[in-house]
Structures are given as C-alpha cells and as structure tokens.
Write a structure and sequence with these properties.
Length: about 290
C-alpha cells in the first residue's frame, strides 16, 4: 500500500467514525431539541465567545513559537500566527492532505534546519502542554463542584493536580532537555490559553441562557477537549459530542444543552479555521525575529 493510499484510507476511516458517532448521538437525543436550544442563542455572547476563542489561539501560537525559538528557529510572531492559522485550516478542512502540525514542522525545518527531531519534539510538547492544563483545570473545576459523582474523586483529584505537573516536568527533563528552560513559560502560556477557552465556553453557556450547573458544563467541556485531541475523527467531530452526551448523563445535565454547547464551539472553531484558506493559496512568507 502506498503512502497516499494509506492516508486516504485513514481519512475515510475518520469520516466514517465521525459520521457513526454523530448518528449515535441523534439516536439518543432529539435533533429538534438541540436546534431549539441553538435558536435561543444570544448573538452578543456568541461574539464574545468568538473573541476569546481567537485570543486563545493567538496565545497558543505564541506558546508554539516559544518552543521554536528555543530550538533555534527564530520565526517572527507575525509569520508564526499566519502559519498557525494555516495549520488550523489544514487540520479541519483538508484532513486527507498534510496535517496542520506536519505542515508547520515541514516549513520550519526547511527554513531554519534545527533538526527534524527537535521540530517534532516542539510540536509534541506544545500539544502535551495544552493537554496538561486542560487536565489541571478540569480537576480544579471538579474540586469546586458540588456534584456527588465528582466529589467522590475529591482526594484523587487533589493528588492528581501536582502529580501531573511533576510528571510532565520529569518527562521534559528526561526526554526533551533542549526545551526544558522554557518549561515554566510554556506552562504559563498554556494556563492562559485554556483560561481563554474556558471564558469562551462560559460565554457560550451565557448565549444559550444556561445559568445552572455552569461548573459541571465547563468540566465536561474540558474533558471533551482532551478527548477531541485523540486522532480518531475529523477535527474532533463526534468524539467531543459523545463526551458531552455521556458527561451530561453522569453529571445529571441536560443532554440537548450539552450537545448545543459542543456544536456551537465547533462552529466557532470552523469559522476561525476557515480564515486560514487565505494562506493556502498564498503561502505565508517566513520572517525571522531574534527576540525570544
């Protein structure tokens, strides 16, 4: 099997999995209820959600550039932002072609020659750093929740927060020593990235007039963000919704509202990602910046 056929096969499989998960969701809830929930959305709060989503992506791009600078790829923030937006477009709209992360890695390696291993490590650590803070915030929200199911894990969550940070630091020290000096800066960026996404989700809740169980909805949102990173579907479509569906079931939340939150977040993601099409037709020129 050629590499092209293998990629096409993986893409077809992801589409099938996404479609199957979406079909499964709507065997459990009524589509009309979800649409009714979405129709009640407040445009002002949706705009604020969009704004904070953009802020989260700008901060995420800065975090990635921190790693690039550390390995000697002195990419300017402007060029990196353009490259990051193009990567978002590729990840969501061109899953059968080169992935967004792979394309960014290819371009940076070609322009600066820091070494393929270092580039791949930077991209991997960027993702893992984001997932770490998703996990930390999810644990923190679970501790703040009065939900009986979440409170049953209270002491485990108390231990999990510092333990996850310590484990990730040792992973960096042991396997990625080149980027260890920017560990805490990256941690800080990740904290801001996920905080901005939490605010985005909070405004989505406000737009849908959700006033009860906000902590629990935000907790499920964070868990769904972790699950959506697993490359089983197209852009996390289906996997995020299934997480919301079962999260609603376990925490006693409204299923239609949960799916409405998930769909709204996906539409915001798709809208911002689609803007990257401009750099698909005219690839961004890479400019260097010696500042770190």
């Amino acid at each position: 099997m050629t590499e092209k056929l293998r990629k096409q096969g993986i893409t077809v499989l992801k589409i099938i999995v996404s479609a199957a998960l979406i079909y499964f969701i709507f065997t459990k809830i009524d589509l009309k209820d979800v649409l009714q929930t979405l129709r009640k959305s407040d445009p002002l709060f949706l705009f604020l959600a969009l704004l904070f989503f953009v802020v989260s992506k700008v901060l995420s791009a800065f975090r990635l550039n921190l790693y690039f600078h550390q390995i000697g790829a002195q990419l300017s923030h402007t060029s990196n932002l353009k490259l990051y937006l193009l990567g978002m477009f590729y990840n969501l709209f061109l899953p059968g072609g080169i992935g967004g992360d792979a394309y960014k890695g290819y371009v940076v390696q070609k322009a600066y020659q820091p070494g393929t291993k270092k580039v791949v490590s930077s991209l991997l650590l960027d993702r893992l750093s984001g997932m770490l803070l998703l996990f930390v915030y999810a644990c923190a929200l679970a501790l703040l929740s009065e939900n009986a199911f979440l409170q049953s894990f209270f002491w485990l969550l108390m231990v999990a927060i510092p333990a996850s940070v310590v484990v990730f630091w040792f992973v960096n020290k042991s396997f990625f020593p080149t980027t260890l000096p920017v560990f805490w800066k990256s941690f800080g960026y990740s904290a801001l990235v996920q905080l901005a996404q939490l605010v985005c989700a909070l405004f989505i809740l406000r737009s849908l007039s959700v006033t009860l169980d906000a902590i629990e909805y935000l907790f499920v949102f964070l868990i769904s963000s972790i699950v959506s990173v697993i490359p089983l579907t197209i852009g996390g479509i289906g996997s995020r919704e299934v997480t919301f569906l079962y999260g609603a079931k376990w925490l006693g939340l409204d299923a239609s509202t949960s799916i409405g939150i998930s769909f709204t977040f996906f539409l915001i993601t798709a809208l911002v990602s689609f803007l990257g099409i401009a750099y698909h037709f005219k690839k961004p020129e890479l400019e260097s910046n010696q500042s770190k």
